[in-house]
Structure of Restriction endonuclease:
Amino acid sequence: MGDPFDFNEILMSVSYFSSITTKALTQFINDSINQRLKSAIDENSSGVTLNRLHEQLEDETESEKPKIVTTEEEITGFNIVKAILCQKVEIDRIIARDTQSYFGILLDDNNRKPICRLHFNAKQKYIGFLNEERKEERFSIESISDIYKFTDKLLDSITLYE
């Protein structure tokens, strides 16, 4: 009786299937590359260049980056201002609005009722108050806890709107 497993036949079968698999994979990769090249050529012929596509993608990723970042220092400063002002107004009337250049604290979420502005985006920190002419007067502070030194000014800013 012969051996049911002929080693030579198995090797030939493996070799045969290996070559077929390699050819199929090569064909698939070539087709995929050709399809991408055709779509790129079509886009180029319609007036859209690859460089332009690349620039558009860069612009999209740039626009996805937030331009306004609220820091822990700003939140802490906001909480200090709320702690000071809760003597005079309900705490839920004090609202924060962060912008690119300053962190604004408002009464009643109203731009016409600014309490103060925290400028914490540079090395030197400032707290700013708007006067009657809507001009901002800035005071430098060394640390966030220096906000407590402006308790009277903060309480006075509330009386302008009451």
